[in-house]
Amino acid sequence: MEKLMFLTKFLRSPRNIGSVTPSSRFLAKAMVKPVDWDSAKHVAELGAGTGVFTKHIDQLRSPDCKVVVFEQDRSMRKRLEHLYPELYYHHDACDITSAMKQYGINQFDYILSGLPFTNFPQELRDEIMDEVERALKPGGTFVAFQFSLQMKKQLAERFGDISLEFVPMNVLPAFVYRCKKTK
Hints:
By secondary structure, the protein is of the alpha/beta class. It has helices at residues 2-12, 14-17, 25-32, 52-60, 74-83, 96-102, 122-135, 152-158, and strands at residues 42-46, 66-70, 88-90, 108-113, 136-146, 161-167, 174-180.
């Protein structure tokens, strides 16, 4: 059912969805691996889709970790709200700082992203990345996957410490960027 929902959404709006199928469990594990779940108090997920990463985040987070899930598609967001009612939800990744105020969060320890940046115009990429930079605490980590290395230069300009992991066991194989905010 989840795969069918994802495919339908992709066919209607390929620029916003970015893939024909949800991410694999291998990619999901690579995305949540950089998070220190014992100390994380505030985590955001951008572009949650059907909730492949959300499921892992919900299972791994400590009871006092506040998680805000950003998903633009209303039906996908409502589905996630039903599946993971203890998390917080917002519709627009361009509005991270506003959502933080709404939920009483000063800064995020980690922001995980499944957004298809390569499908977005540069202006939208910049707007989202400006929000990510403002929202992350110093020493915080931005984790994002992409199907190419197109974002590497832009992320290197924003973050002092970047590492990459290649995840071949996914349709399509993906790169996981781990970007630490140094200032």
